[in-house]
Amino acid sequence: MTGSDVFAALRPRLPSPLDEVVDARFERHGVRLLLKRDDLIHPELIGNKWRKLAPNLRAAAGRTVVTFGGAYSNHLRATAAAGRLLGLDTVGVVRGEELAGRPLNPSLARCADDGMRLHFVDRTTYRRKTEPDVLAAILRAAHAEGAYVVPEGGSNAAAVRGCTALGEELRGHADVVAVACGTGGTLAGLAAGLGPHARVIGVPVLRGGFLGEEIRALQRRAFGGPRGDWSLDDRFHFGGYARTTPELDAFAEDFEDRHGLPVERLYVAKSLYGLLTLTEEGAFARGTTLAAVVTGRPFP
C-alpha cells in the first residue's frame, strides 16, 4: 500500500481542531487556553499515534509490522487497529511472560481481535530488545524475520518527522505549547515544526530524568541536530508511567465537568495539571496564549 493509499484508507481529520476553552483558573492570570484536539484525528489511531504511525506504515510498504509494548500499551492497540484497517500483518512483542491459562487483559484481547499476533518475552530480554542480536532472536522466535520494526511507543526518525506537522498546525496560534511525553518523539517533532517564536513544555509521564537526551538523540536522527525551543518539567509524573493519584483523578474529573471533555489519565491529565500549576506559579506573562495537545482519549 502506497503512502497516499494509507491516508485515503484511514481518512484522518487533519489538521486537527484547535478549540479555545474558557477556564477561570487560567483567565485570572491573564492567559488563554487552547486545546489541540489530536484525539479527534481518527477514532482508532488517536492523536500522536496517527502522527507517528502513518510515516512508519508508509515505510513498511506492505511488510509485516513488528512493534513493542507493555500489557496495556495504547501503541500496541493503535498498531493492531491500523493492521486491521489496512490489511497489514502485525506482531506485538509484549513485555512480560504470558500467564498460562489466564485470559488476556482487555487491551491485549483487543489487539488479538484486530489480528495482531502477540509474542511475549521476559523482562530481561525485553530490556535488551534494541541490541541487534537480541532483536534478531526475538524476530526469529516470533516468525517475523524480514518484518518492518517500529520501536516501543512508535518514536523513531520517521515518526519525529511526522510530528512536525503538529507544530506547523500550531504555528502562529500559541506562544507556549504543552505536551505529555512518554518516549519523546511527539515533542521532538512538534518543537521542530513550531517555528522560532514559540516554545514547547514537555511533561514526562515516566520518572527518571533521562528523557532530555532521548529527545536530543531523536532530533539528531531525524534532522541532523537540535530543533526548536523546548524544555521538560519532571514534576508531574504522579509516580510514573500508568500511575495516577486521587489528586490527579479529582483534577481530571473537574476538568471534564467544566469543559465536557473526556480526559485521558496517563498522559493528558498530567500535561493539563502541569500547565495549570505553571500558570498558578506565574510562569507565563499576562497575554500569553497556551495550547495543550490532547494526545489521546480514554480507551473503552
Which SSEs are present, and which pair or pack?
Blueprint: H1 3-10, E1 18-21, H2 24-27, E2 32-36, H3 48-60, E3 65-69, H4 74-86, E4 90-95, H5 106-113, E5 117-121, H6 123-127, H7 132-141, E6 148-149, H8 157-170, E7 176-181, H9 185-194, E8 199-204, H10 211-223, E9 230-232, H11 246-259, H12 268-280, E10 289-293
Parallel strand pairs: 2-10, 3-4, 3-6, 4-5, 7-8, 7-10, 8-9
Antiparallel strand pairs: 1-2
Helix pairs in contact: 3-8, 4-5, 8-9, 8-10, 9-10
What does this molecule look like?
It contains twelve helices and ten strands. It folds into two domains: 3-43 and 160-293, Rossmann fold, CATH 3.40.50.1100; 64-146, Rossmann fold (3-Layer(aba) Sandwich), CATH 3.40.50. The longest helix has 14 residues, at 157-170. The mean pLDDT is 93. With 300 residues, the protein is α/β, with parallel strands linked by helices. Helices cover 42% and strands 16% of the residues. The strands form two sheets. Strands 1-2-10-7-8-9 form a six-stranded mixed β-sheet, with helices on both faces. It has a four-stranded parallel β-sheet with strand order 5-4-3-6, sandwiched between helices. The radius of gyration is 19 Å and the shape is globular.
Using the coordinates above, name the CATH class of the largest domain. Answer: Alpha Beta
CATH A-level architecture of the largest domain: 3-Layer(aba) Sandwich
Overall structural class, as computed from helix and strand content, comes to: alpha/beta
Radius of gyration: 19 Å
**What is the general shape?**
globular
> Largest beta sheet: what is the strand line-up?
1-2-10-7-8-9
Helix count? 12
Low-confidence stretches: none
For the secondary structure, the number of strands is 10
